[in-house]
Amino acid sequence: MVIRCKVNRNQHYRWYAIVGLLLGFELGIAASVSPLRELVAWDTLSPIGGSTETVFAPAAEIDQSYFLPNNSIPTHYSISLETDIHQNVRTFRATTWVYLTILEPSDRITMHLQELTIMEARLYRVASSGGQAIEIDQPARIVNIALEHVTFRTAATLPTGNYALRIVYTGIMLNYQSGYLASQYRNEQDQWRYVGSTHFQATHARRLLPCYDEPALKATFDLQIRHHRDYKAIANMPRTSIEIDPTNREYLISVFETTPRMSTYLLAFAVTDFATRENGKHQVVARSNAINDADYALQVGATILERLEDYLGVPYYEYMPKLTSIAIPDRGTGAMENWGLVTYGEPVMLYNPTVNTYRNRKDVTTIIAHEYAHQWFGDLVSPLWWQYIWLNEGFATLFQYYATRLAVPGDEYWELFNGEVIQRAFQDDASETIHSMNQNAATPQEILALFDSIAYKKAGSVLNMFRNVLGESSWQEGLKQYLKDYELTVASDSTLSFYLQQAVEGNDILPQGVKVQDLLASWTNAPGFPVLTVNRLYRDGWMILSQNRFMNGKVLPVEHVWHIPYNYAYASSASFYDLSQYDWLAAPAAKIASTVPDNEWVVFNKQQTGYYRVNYDRRNWELLIEALHANHIAIHRLNRAQLIDDAFHLARADLLDMSVVLRLLRYLRNERDYAPWQAADQVLTFLYEQLHGTEHEHAFLIFMDELIEEVYATLSVDTVNPGETTLYKYLKQLITGWACRIGYKDCLQRSREALRKEYSTPSAGETAVPVHPDVRAVVYCHGLQEDTEPEFQAIYMRLMNSRNQAERTDLLKALGCSQNENSLRTLLATIVLSASPGTNFIYLSEERAQLLNAVTTGTTGVGIATFVDVYSDTVSLQTAISIAGAGAMESAVRNVAAQCNTPQEREQLETLLKAVTGYVSSATVNSARALATAKLDWFNSAEALIVAEFLESYNNI
Q: Which of 777, 702, 691 is nearest to 732 (CA)?
């Protein structure tokens, strides 16, 4: 095996430590290794049994001082923790033994630490042959708060060898997502109960223990927790014993098995009074008054885990003895893939079909798939450094959808991948300031910033592109070997490339003389994505293909050349389901021959498997529009969605006439598939938000009416039939939402009547008829748009009484739709009332912000006017900010600015901005004013004039 390295001060990887960690070597006394004092970067990561010699571009300049020195590495942690979370005590006490290896003689041992108070530290020598550790020093401690480092300085230089530090300290629990966290819930007796859980990704394990908090520095962990006897402790590993604390019989000591070697950010535990359901080694844990809502997660999680095992060829239980999923109350909608103990916010793990919607079910299913995919991608094989976090999140995002195709194909979630991942990734990746997938980072803030749509959605899209290009069997083979060879170690993108290359050798899949590593690097090492422009010469099938970087509002000349895999279908060969063949554009432009007749349309990027947009010459766009109007199903539904999404954004970047987009959209009156409507919804929402309240709104409503009239007639706004598929429900909510929004009397009357029937009083002699959760979003929102104060109050009381966090979110959104000014004033007043002692107005931590958002994004202007009126008062504004937070108010201000289409609305905004100046950030005030100005300026743009002309002329047809 050959591993090459070069000196590069832009990187910090330890040559000797990483080799040992990657390949599983024990780095005990490294007498035969000559330690490198220089910081190194890898030219190549040569996997077991092979070598390669590709050199990458230099890494970005970063602050090296944040990295730990390269003179020691950890081997094991033994943690003993004491917590009184049952009494809502936010301090904890701990003693941790850090077993480590000194790699070069030094009198300093440096680790990470954040907001821990060390009371005592003792250093022990550990003999290689075993035996009792011998205390040799009580080192001095130097804490660097800015770097989050603690350095233990010994009286004499330590020779290479094995040591242990015993550290006694205290720490503080927080309410937000970092470290050892406190949260609360109400039990069946309406009493507050307190629980503790952890979230350490990316750099927060150091909030629980002094440690080597970098992903490549893996170690094993022992854990024991002292807690109250009414509570239970769970962790990554099964509990081996539970004993009564001999010093206080009110407390128990839970002891857990030793973990496999893993990164510090994957350590996890929880101390709760929750209930547990089990299916063999698969478990779910939730508060006892919600445990029944965890049954779906128990069932679908086990199936997803099994299908992932089959697909990846690496059984989960070979490495971990159990898998527990726990729902944490009042922790939002996030989740964390801790190995063996996955933590979720309640809305993405709990599902009750009597109150939750098909969208909640989808969220639960796909988030479980995401976190379970991490058990391999991130836990079994971790990133070499955070710049490769997309190896975790990109795979998890891909399998978030793909694993449901394997486990619950009837739910059709895989069909949502293009709209929810690829097309959304494009929006963020089209910025001139966006970073590449491989983006180096050093500070905790820089590292946190890497957890964005590039690491998740773009990476998932790029990986899916390679899955299709390389072929399913080769893709699977490469992943299986990658996971098996790099188990319990760390990897980079070149590691993955090597195994995918091995899997496709001899298959004639790649361009001549090009390796997977070159192909992948063209997507991972550069920001942005290309637009593939197809100019047909219309003589004997010739076409000119060219690529440029696509940007919001412009296209940059080629500075970077992507290896673009392309295929295409045309009218007489509509082979959209054949994804077995790809050609490659690896130059700024190329002239290619084809057999496409001049009078037929052509569509590139079949099923939009490639991560790029496509533009065509004007004639081909015209042929496509004609085809969609004549027989839209001749073009695959995902490509119909692609055409809408690409055309709109190309027009917004001045690469296409907006009239082309509008004429293309007219075919939608015959469209019954969700994917094209999902893409169109973004376009139509943009137009509605620009034109609402203006002289052009009526023309838009007539245009919108034509698009939805026929499909609306096939749907029911207020009922759900048992045979409705997931995608049908998505389509129904989209179409009926538009119908009510633009004033369909049938839609509004049905919504109003359904809402009235649900909350009818027994004294009226009527039996209540609950609105089905799957149509509740439209029925509640639009049913409240008359003077419906009794129903408003009933929904609010339902919100206050609900213990289901996902349902509470839906109810808050509905309340914001009201057109009753008094009702909205009362709703805003509950923010203040919720802070009163002993209040009955109880909100979870994020719900006050959700309330402000609901009022300022409602479907009418009443909410905006009421919000501005209420918070133009300084006392009300200050009080709301002190309770809901400045961030919640800033978000609401931006919502108000986003709805400024008229001079009168601009005056309304200025009144609000004058009131909030000094109470929210100046950046928020400036960006709100700039957004409102841009919206008004839009009416003088060519794009606006084209839209207005089209709508007016269209309505005169």
A: 777
